[in-house]
Amino acid sequence: MAFPFLSFLKRSQGPEAPGVHPQPFWSFRPRSDRESGDAIVSNFALHMFPAKVSRASLAWKYSFWLGTGSAALFLLLILSGGPLLFLYVPSVERAYASIKDIEYVVTFGSWLRSVHRVGAHLMVVVVALHLVRVFLTGAYKNGVGQGQKREWNWVIGVFLLLFTLLLSFTGYLLPWDQLAFWAVTVGTNIAASIPFVGPQVRELLIGGRAIDQPTLIRFYVLHIVVLPIAVGALFAYHMWRVRKDGGLAAVDKEARENELQEAPASSTKTYTLLGIARGTSPVIKATSISRLDKMVNAVPDLVRRANLVTLATIALISILATFVRSPLEEPANPLVTPNPAKAPWYFLWLQEIVTDTTIKIGSFTVNGAFVGGVVLPGLLVTLLILWPWLDRSPKEAAGVWFARARRRQNLVFLLLCAFVLTLTFVGTVMRGPYWHIYWPWEAWPDIPGRL
Amino acid sequence: MEKRTNSPYPRIDRPVLAVVGVLLVISTVLFARNDREHEWRWYQAEFKRLVAEKFGPDKAKTVPTGLQQIWIPSMAKADRCVTCHQALGWKGFETADEPFRTHPAEILKSHPPETFGCTSCHGGQGWAIDAGPAHGPIEHWNEPLLGKQLGSEYSLVDNKAALMQMNCNVCHRYERETKGADAINHAKKLVQEKGCRGCHVVNGRGGTIGPDLTYVGDKEAEQYEYGRLSGQKTSFAWHVAHFKDPRSLVTETVMPNFNFGTKDAQALAMLVLSWKKSPVPAAFIPGVPHSEPQTEQEKADEERMKTGPGGWFVKTGCFVCHSISALGVKSPAQIGPDLSTAVEDVQSRFGRTLDDFLREPTGTMSVVLSRQIILTPEEKAVAISKLREAYAEHEKQKATAAKADKQAAPVAARH
User: Fold this and answer.
1) What is the pLDDT of residues B55-86, one digit of tens each?
2) Please, what are the domains in chain A?
3) pLDDT tens-digit profile of B191-238?
4) Contact B233 A316 (CB under 8 A)
5) CATH class of B182-287
6) Alpha helices in B37-157, H assignment, sequence order
7) Where are the domains of chain B?
8) Touching check for B126 and chain A: CB below 8 Å?
9) In this structure, are residues B60 and A135 in contact, taking their beta carbons and an 8 Å threshold?
10) What is the ipTM of this complex?
11) B221 interaction partners in chain A (CB closer than 8 Å)
12) Do B219 and A448 contact (CB within 8 A), yes or no?
């Protein structure tokens, strides 16, 4: 046993079922084949990953490890959110003061909050980039493997992105300062522009007609319970599907290039301990690329890189968090609208579209919130979800960066990305007081203060 | 170690791991240092040194270390000013430089910091522990320290520290004159002399030509029109300019130009900005009745009862619970029985004579007479004689009433 002080956990009494590892912990220095076998069976990384993975799918340049980065950020957000749970008070009267305390007097509090905030913003970025990468490599397409359902994993991925946005948005309200209050005001008012049911949707979102304690507790529970569980569950399914689909799409490309044959169904392969214990197992057909020179062991190569990415993410966020202090504006005041009042930056392209589609004819105003806030994002998300079925390119385009067959759709996709990025830039950097456009080199007018 | 894999990756990953490792160490050093490095540590060490120099090392040991705060739950304040300003209550540092100076003692007698905190008078951000965010001016905190520095920036006439008087007046708003708040007192005098209430409601009284100014201090800075104001765009600057010449800022205003000088305008600006709905406990506000006042009727009744035949029972406090109706004393509460028949009543309730009961009361009266109304034996004798008097009076009134009833009965029967 690697940890003698944990020896009480060892189940030494009674006959051991053959094949079932008797210890809850494995040895780092196995002394027998049995012990090393146990180590493998009880190792989480080996449950999650296959024993061997293709070298190509581990390449830095293929995936940029953005999915692992997102997962690392999610882990970091849970880790940094944990202590914040103990310090933050979800009450209209006390939320602001509790954040002030976290900022000023809690040991490492300011850093912790910045880790959480910078991590959350970066998670939106990294998850979005991951989606871009998957699109550009056509990785939602099924390749040569059997039973692949990559298109469904893409759909799960789109929902993971939406949940990431919602996680960030619900967290936005919690400090209960002007930034929080008005960003959520803008966001929920856009929801209110849905025809017929808009006001009801808004009422459901904020728990009343005004943003107040019911809104805060709703967003809080969504932020710390509902959405993290949803993201965790979807993430687990996302990962499982990656394995079921035979790994990353890069594997299919490699398989095709090597003209490898599908391995025959194996009768001994098992995914369950039960299979080992009873000697029976469901027969599983798997795409197996058995050319060993193209394969590496998941432990250590995959695990090491995953850990590296996680550690690098932690290091990056930690350093950023020491330099980027999280803002805390004036306490929320429903009577005073900050000028300008902005949604969170990842929704600013929508707010920009809302502005640009709001048309004034004399005293009559056509509100753009429905077009910019509901129709357009709804259309884009629907299109994203349906795209794997609309994409008619051959399966050879799966797992290839900028495949020739997908050139046109990649171009349109990139143009859309550029459009969103431009509008986000305009909304974030260039929109000043009264929503006027200011060039980056132009100074904004002074915002008056009390004293 | 045996070679387990033909993977080329370990060779590539090793330098990456090295870089990441270095970054992790750097980040740890950075955030640990950032969290530790605060000027208050130096100020506390310095103050300890000053105390040791002046009063010896033993005294210096009593200076607390670490973050200090004055917590006022009723105002949701946690003022951490005392983390650096440790000399607050120490005698002997009256002439030292800030933050090592003793606070003037006189004002603290009536305004103990443990009740009022620091920022309720001085302004500033009590949550903060560094001078920059604590003193301001800083973005996202609208109440900077109201000190000489800010006063100089506004070129206050006479007293550069006068801005703090705005905060005095948050509590002292209903006083005509407040000791030490000269600028505010001056402005209040101007409000009376110039007849501001002719047009404006202030504290519930005044005309309706101009806007109600009772809580004008709550108006947000952005809600003023600065189009015609040159220089600083602040509520204070707006009010100063407006008092000097209202029409220069608001062309269509009907407010007359009173030709206020700079000093008057500044004092008035401070006064109006102090008119805020502030989350101050009612008990902190002088000039506001802290009790439910008696009505004129109640006062007159009590006075009449005091001088009447039952006055003794009013003075001792018996009447709080008991009426003595025969002597014209009516208890406002009437919790206990009417004492007009006490002579008879005590006998029937307790089986004891009145004298005996008063000497050794039981039940509620034993508690009242041992804690609240403590009577000497002589006073008890007075009580007994008065109660006999009351009983006699009661019997007399009963007899009179019975006679009157008899006379009235035939009259009633006729109807």
Assistant:
1) 999 999 999 999 999 999 888 899 999 999 99
2) 52-337 (1.20.810.10)
3) 999 999 999 999 988 888 999 999 999 998 888 988 888 888 899 999
4) no
5) mainly alpha
6) 39-55, 57-60, 105-110, 113-116, 119-122, 131-135, 148-153
7) 42-145, 182-287, 296-403
8) no
9) no
10) 0.79
11) 448-450
12) no
